[in-house]
Amino acid sequence: MAPAHLRLRIGLAASGWVALGATALPGGSPLRWIPVLAFVALAPGLALLHPQPAGLRPGARLEALALAAPVSLSLAALAATSLFLVEGFSTTAFMVSLAAFVTVVAALPGVPLPAATRGAVERERSGVRVKRKPGGAR
Question: Which of 55, 47, 53, 49 lies closest to 125 in space, CA to CA?
Fold first, then answer.
């Protein structure tokens, strides 16, 4: 495993626990809400999408970044809803559940992305030119 991927995985896993620690700071402090907001909005999605075994091609990097926020917010909504349904919601329980999820998922390979497995990115790399008909049809 490349050192850059290892650093990314460790950074993602640690980000949740840092955000959890930041919740102990006073309520209105930017040192509290900035790490929590950044973690909840990006880390779960990046943990699911980014750690690919062979790395990401340029098109797939953009795709992973574009999908990270919606996936993260969806997972946060699922976690919050689940905690509300079992009547166990608290900031600590919410952050611990997301931090544990990100820690486990960061150790696993990322979800395959379409731009990483097919499409124009591979044609450019292989040097094969695709002839296109006028009007955009192949």
Answer: 55
End-to-end Cα, the chain, rounded Å: 39
For residues 81 and 16, give the distance between their C-alpha atoms in angstroms, rounded to a whole number.
Answer: 19
**Is 120's pLDDT higher than 50?**
no
**Residues 114, 115, 120, 124: is their CA dihedral positive or negative?**
negative
Summarised one tens digit per residue, pLDDT across range 53-85 is: 666 676 777 777 888 899 999 999 999 999 999
The length of the chain, given as a count of residues: 138
Nearest C-alpha neighbor of 82 from the set 67, 96, 103, 68: 96
In this prediction, residue 121 carries a pLDDT of: 47
Identify the CA nearest to 115 among candidates 69, 67, 57: 57
